[in-house]
Amino acid sequence: MNLLAMFDQDLVASVLRSLIPILLAALGGMICERVGIFNIGLEGILLIGTFTGVAVSYGTHSWILGSLAAMVAGMLFSMILGYGAVYRKGDPIVLAVAMNILAVGMTSFLLLAIFHVQGVFKDPKIDGIPTWRIPGLADIPGIGPLFSLTPIGYLALLLVPVLWVVLFRTPVGLRLRGVGERPLAAATLGVNPQRYQLLAVLASGALAGLGGAQLALGNVVQFTENMSAGRGWIAVVVVMLARAHPVGVLGAALLFGFADAIGFRLQSFGLPQQLTDAGPYIVTLIVLILMSRRFKQARTAQLA
């Protein structure tokens, strides 16, 4: 297998599978960022979404109920950040770190308590999310996989232009951005900053929880301990890299999705799995270093 042979239609499909959970979590983080709350709890919310989606899908034999339950669980879990940071004025970084740690312990405990297994839970009763192929379009060479996604995959891609319109072309978006940029000025105009911040945190939890459902029921039909595996942290970097812009979030998420997908292909060249699995996180570190340098240069220019 030569290097060019890696870049085929199967790679496009793999990139899209890796992209969707990160994109949904990053869009949620973007909404939080717009109202002035830096949400690094996406990792924990993703993990809660994966477990809840699998558990409810297993119990009800319905991927729809599993996905909806994952969204609700993500919203409820994000209330820790919403109540603590918005109403109790706690440090959102400390709260979010605690959420991430809590999610790991809680899902591991519930996995053993409910299903009496450790590590991996896989069962034929779990109803996975189906793939919806658009006839004709799904057969187009190169871009065919774009028209052969799960319903959540289509929704995630559709949310990018929808959120762009909401943020930059509607009064609601203007209020959201006003709360994040000038909360006191927004309050003088009759906007309740706390209400908008809480709603943004809840929306973030719903999207990240839905990303967890896609990861556990769409990409694979199972739950494994610590299944989010750093994707929530990558989503945080995506938000930073994109400067909380929907189109930029999609582009940055594509970068990390490609890094994740290409890692599997590089294993055919004899590279160790541990090295290829580290691909997205190596890209994350490089991006953070480049961003740090850019911010330092901008700060130096301002002081000059």
SSE order and pairing:
Elements: H1 9-34, H2 42-60, H3 63-87, H4 92-115, E1 120-121, E2 132-133, E3 148-149, H5 151-169, H6 171-181, H7 183-188, H8 193-219, E4 223-224, H9 231-242, H10 246-266, H11 273-277, H12 279-303
Antiparallel strand pairs: 1-4, 2-3
Notes on the protein architecture:
By secondary structure, this protein is mainly α. The protein has a single domain (8-303), classed as ABC transporter involved in vitamin B12 uptake, BtuC. The protein has twelve helices and four strands, in the order ααααβββααααβαααα. The strands form two sheets. The chain has a two-stranded antiparallel ribbon with strand order 1-4. The protein has a two-stranded antiparallel sheet with strand order 2-3. The longest helix is centred in the last third of the chain and has 27 residues, at 193-219. The termini are far apart. The mean pLDDT is 89.
* Domains, number: 1
Mean pLDDT: 89
Written as H for each helix and E for each strand, in order along the chain, the element string is HHHHEEEHHHHEHHHH
CATH topology call: ABC transporter involved in vitamin B12 uptake, BtuC
Q: Name the helicity range.
A: over 70%
Number of helices: 12
CATH class: Mainly Alpha
User: Could you say what the CATH architecture is?
Assistant: Orthogonal Bundle
Report the sheet-strand fraction.
under 5%
List how many beta strands DSSP finds. Answer: 4
Helix/strand class: mainly alpha
Within the largest sheet, what's the order of strands? 1-4
Largest sheet: 2 strands, antiparallel
How far do the termini sit from each other? Answer: 53 Å
CA-based shape = globular
